[in-house]
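Example A, followed by Example B.
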Amino acid sequence: MTVYSQTLGLALILLLGYWGARLVSKAKMPMVVGYILVGLVLSPSLLHVIPQTLNDELEIAKILGLGVIALLIGGELEIKKLRKLGKAIMGITVAQVIGTFVAVFIATFYLLKLPLGMSLLLGAMATATAPAGTVAVIREYKAKGSFTSALLGVVAIDDAVCIIFFGLTSAIVAVLHSGTALQLHNLLEPLLELSGSLILGIITGLLSCFFLRHTTDRHHKVVLLVGIALLNSGIANLYNLSPLLVNMVSGFMIANIYPKPGEMNHLENIELPIYIVFFVLAGASLHLDVLLDNWIWAAVYIIARGIGKIGGSYVGAHFSGAPQNVKKYLGCALIPKAGVTIGLLMIVQGRFPEMAMPITAIELAAVTICELIGPMGARYALISAGEIQLNAARQN
């Protein structure tokens, strides 16, 4: 049965997503895995209950979900928590980005024998980490501590670094591909996207602080925070900025300028239905057929990316003097891959149409696997780091 009604579709997403998550939690897996699995089962790849047209019509739900998640990430990045970890966060972020790029480039260029330009682009795209699944696991198990703070800092900065890294790489690939001189606008484009996102996030963050100062009712504060998340996403999409970065910066401003701590906690009462809809739709967007058709390429890519993320994080943590638990386990929580990757794919399809098909196939196949195993990696890392008690994990 294919559902075309938005109302009926949302009802099925909420109810089936909820019960699917309850089932997987009994198998000691994060609830977000249940949401994604339900979406995958309902997707065009399997039962075709949620067609692509309905998924597209519910785009606003995905925009809201990603906006709220990014706002929550920024809200956790309090300067007093990060002061001791700032060097470690930057060291880990840079090292795992470089490590991932090198590992994936070597695997695709030397093992899969892909063209140089294609391997460079795949290496750059592999550096992106999707924060949504990781944040959902942190919120589900109420993880707190230096490891959690370092993890949130890395996933927040990672996407900014990835955007710049991909912009520089794509400019080099354009030169290699066309034989023309390096174009200045290709180098400036990612920097403009980053700076524009930072400026917009700062402005809306300051506005949020002003509005929150004049609001005492917690229900009204929820309305303001949701409105800010949508405002940030809407303006960012209008001017080709990063909705993820804008909302992160906005949340960071609220957490560090507004005098009352914990303002983001007001979103707790509404975040569960937002998470369910967001992740079920994300699961319904996965391409199982693409994975099955390209599983060898995807397997090599995923393994190389995992080695780069985990190995790079370890090296970065070691040389930046990070705590032992951060050094040993943080890389395991950086496996998820989705949102930013889709945006980068659109850029590849526009700039390099002749390379777009194989790159899209590999990336979509990798997203399918990484979105399923990523939350379990985050759960393992948080438990191993000692920031989720085993009895609490079992109760959840």
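Example B, a separate protein, is given below in the same form.
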Amino acid sequence: MRNRYRLDFFLMREFDSYRSTLKETSLDLTNNEYLCEDESLNNVFDFDAYVKAKFGNIDALPASPDAICLGPKDLYFVEFKNQEWSRVNKPQIERKFREGTQILKNLLSTFTPRDNRYCFCVVHKRDTSTRAYHRNIQASQERYSFDAINEELGNFYDEIIVQDIDFYKQNFAELAC
């Protein structure tokens, strides 16, 4: 039986078959390279694999982020883009944001506690073609577009982070990316 009060226990049964690592979920199949090398976190799940298993018999699979990282009261929805932000297909990311969030909201519809923290993270390669000032402007513009979509979705996420891998290395010291 699911624990109705801890987010990680509540979702564990649903995702346990899709256990993975940040390294594996950051694999870029086209270039056969990883954006993140971390294999230390225990509660990482391959959300793409989950969606394929659950919705594989329909014509068009819902777009979905790569991974979910669970803590007792925290959920990080993670999309890895192994390319510079200036080259990322923005409408595709927005689709993943919308459709993945809908799947997650449906899963959490019977989860009662509301003192949890939900975060959507986009991790991309450092953009070497532009200066830091322009990168920050780009990131804040994208953040604004995600904020607008989040508002449409009932402000599901407490935080949205669109940053390059260096940001995550500096601000999440426990990760070995």
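On Example B: The radius of gyration is 16 Å.
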